[in-house]
């Protein structure tokens, strides 16, 4: 296969600039997501760098070698910064500009300017260094990131391996073989690989940013903003999935339906803010009082629900009593007394359908309220 080098240079400049402008636009529309801003900068700097490097041999060799490679190193530094920002770290300008500054310094040395092999080695080493630093940022934060980082890591490692291979070959072969023949030479493949790598990184970055935004929106949509526990949507989705699993495994599951007592009176007497404080405290009590495999949520104003997989009625009764007793100790130190009524319904009576469990739990709760509140009642036919 033969690739025409000047065409490849032009294609590089055109596509990188176009992609950079598109990324700028996405950044602008995203309310300033810094990762996208850094990625746009990387693409635009890379496009400009390739353009200046492409001027070599047109009477502007010094400018091309010095400025072109400085721009390319700055693009590599900004590529690293893109992932730093993505994982929540701050921009570190000495690191970003370090490669470009080192290149500018080396260009003051006449031997460096006149020795292609040395320049090729330094440029490739810097590229490998920035690529590994970029991969290191993602790897270091892998436990905190909820998004898939495998494709980007694979892309970065492939790029580092390709550049290392190039470095090894340049040590074994005549440099003219690396740079020479231009139509079929190694430079053509180097340029093509770098081009594909930058495009791949831009799309992978965009995908990671989008995936994280979606996860954040979903988390917000599934959380009750006041108590910071799951809302009705989260409880319903989680419980339905749990019930399917319990049904398949033939295990019981029991629902606790909790309703704070005389909540309207509490609001009217002590104010809405104190009512909110009671809701927050009760939400925390539930979240801390259940096992990791249980689910709880605020499913209405002052109504909460818990689903306990694997728990039969008697086990659930103990949990409910514990919650009821702990509730009386909420907001100690204030004049407010909080109590809760709890209705219990289990899959032994209701089957594994959530709506039926909720309906039976509601009947049990109604009985607890009717019998004077601050008590736990089980559903009975
Ligand atoms: N502070 C506060 N109050 C809320 C919130 N959501 C609902 N409420 C109030 O909760 C009260 C519920 O009142 P009711 O449904 O009459 O029930 P109750 O007064 O608790 O009476 P019982 O359930 O029969 O013991 C209403 O006054 C709602 O305004 C909230 O987010 N914050």
Helix proportion range: 55-70%
Based on helices, strands and strand pairing, what is the structural class?
A: alpha+beta
Number of DSSP-assigned strands: 5
Ligands bound, unique: guanosine-5'-triphosphate
First-to-last CA distance: 81 Å
DSSP summary: helix tally: 15
Strand content: 5-15%
Provide the domain count: 2
Topology pattern, helix = H, strand = E: HHHHHHHHHHEHHEEHEHHE
Query: Any idea what the shape is?
Result: elongated
Averaged pLDDT: 90
Estimated radius of gyration: 32 Å
Give the secondary structure arrangement, pairings included.
Elements: H1 5-29, H2 34-53, H3 61-86, H4 93-106, H5 110-114, H6 116-140, H7 150-172, H8 175-179, H9 186-221, H10 232-249, E1 253-260, H11 263-270, H12 272-289, E2 295-298, E3 303-309, H13 313-327, E4 340-346, H14 347-350, H15 354-370, E5 376-378
Parallel strand pairs: 4-5
Antiparallel strand pairs: 1-3, 1-4, 2-3
The chain binds guanosine-5'-triphosphate.
Quick structural gist:
It is an enzyme of class 2 (transferase). The chain is of the alpha+beta class.
Notes on the structure:
There is one protein chain. The chain has 15 helices and five strands. By secondary structure, the chain is of the alpha+beta class. The chain has two domains: 217 residues; 147 residues, 2-Layer Sandwich (Alpha-Beta Plaits), CATH 3.30.70. Helix 7 packs antiparallel against helix 9 and helix 11 packs across helix 12. It starts with a helix and ends with a strand. It binds guanosine-5'-triphosphate. It comes from Azotobacter chroococcum NCIMB 8003.
């Amino acid at each position: 296969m033969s690739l025409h080098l000047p065409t490849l240079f032009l294609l590089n400049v055109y596509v990188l600039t176009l992609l950079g402008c598109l990324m700028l636009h996405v950044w602008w529309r995203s309310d300033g997501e810094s990762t996208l801003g850094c990625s746009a900068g990387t693409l635009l700097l890379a496009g400009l760098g390739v353009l200046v490097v492409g001027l070599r041999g047109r009477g502007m060799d010094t400018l091309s070698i010095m400025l072109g490679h400085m721009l390319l190193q700055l693009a590599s530094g900004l590529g690293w910064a893109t992932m730093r920002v993505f994982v929540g770290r701050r921009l570190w300008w000495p690191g970003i500009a370090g490669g470009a500054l080192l290149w500018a310094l080396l260009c003051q040395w006449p031997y460096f300017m006149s020795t292609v092999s040395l320049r090729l080695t330094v440029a490739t080493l810097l590229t490998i260094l920035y690529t590994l630093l970029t991969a290191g940022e993602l790897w270091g934060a892998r436990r905190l990131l909820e998004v898939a980082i495998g494709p980007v890591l694979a892309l970065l490692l492939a790029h580092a391996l390709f550049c290392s291979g190039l470095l090894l070959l340049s040590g074994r072969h005549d440099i003219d073989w690396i740079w020479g023949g231009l139509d079929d030479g190694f430079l053509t493949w180097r340029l093509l690989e770098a081009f594909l790598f930058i495009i791949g990184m831009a799309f992978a970055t965009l995908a990671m940013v989008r995936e994280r935004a979606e996860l954040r929106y979903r988390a917000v949509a599934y959380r009750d903003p006041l108590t910071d526990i799951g809302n009705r949507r989260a409880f319903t989705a989680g419980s339905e999935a749990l019930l399917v699993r319990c049904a398949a495994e033939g295990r019981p599951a029991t629902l606790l339906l909790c309703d704070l007592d005389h909540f309207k009176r509490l609001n009217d007497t002590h104010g809405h803010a104190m009512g909110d404080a009671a809701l927050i405290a009760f939400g925390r009590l539930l979240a801390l009082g259940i096992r990791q495999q249980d689910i709880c949520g605020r499913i209405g104003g002052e109504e909460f629900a818990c689903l306990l997989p694997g728990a039969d009625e008697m086990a659930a009764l103990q949990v409910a009593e514990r919650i009821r007793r702990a509730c009386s100790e909420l907001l100690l130190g204030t004049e407010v007394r909080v109590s809760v009524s709890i209705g219990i319904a289990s899959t032994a009576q209701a089957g594994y359908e959530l709506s039926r469990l909720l309906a039976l739990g509601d009947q049990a709760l109604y009985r607890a309220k009717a019998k004077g509140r601050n008590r736990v009642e089980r559903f009975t036919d």
